[in-house]
Design brief:
This protein is mainly alpha-helical. The protein has 3 helices and no strands. The protein starts with 13 loop residues before the first helix and ends in a 10-residue tail after the last helix.
Length: 84
């Protein structure tokens, strides 16, 4: 299984993270087909299922555009100024 993608996934845009998660799932499925024992095959298939679930979960989340993020932060109340 190719592990180069794991550390980078957190900083990427959601679309790139989804693609990476799906790629990691495919890598795990491929490793499962090459596994010599049932236990190892099951482990790789379990890993693939987790990557796929992460991709589905992230894809289902509504995304805010940068303009929406700015508007939502402008609605936050300011911190009160403490009395002297």
């Amino acid at each position: 299984m190719d592990t180069r993608h794991m550390g980078q996934a957190v900083t990427d845009l959601p679309e790139k993270r989804i693609a990476k998660y799906r790629h990691m799932a495919a890598d795990a499925r491929e490793s499962a087909t090459k596994a010599k024992t049932r236990e190892v095959k099951d482990a790789y298939n379990s890993i693939a299922s987790v990557w796929e679930a992460l991709a589905v979960e992230l894809q289902a989340k509504p995304r805010k555009r940068p303009k929406d993020l700015l508007a939502s932060t402008q609605k936050l109340p300011g911190l009160p100024i403490p009395p002297r």
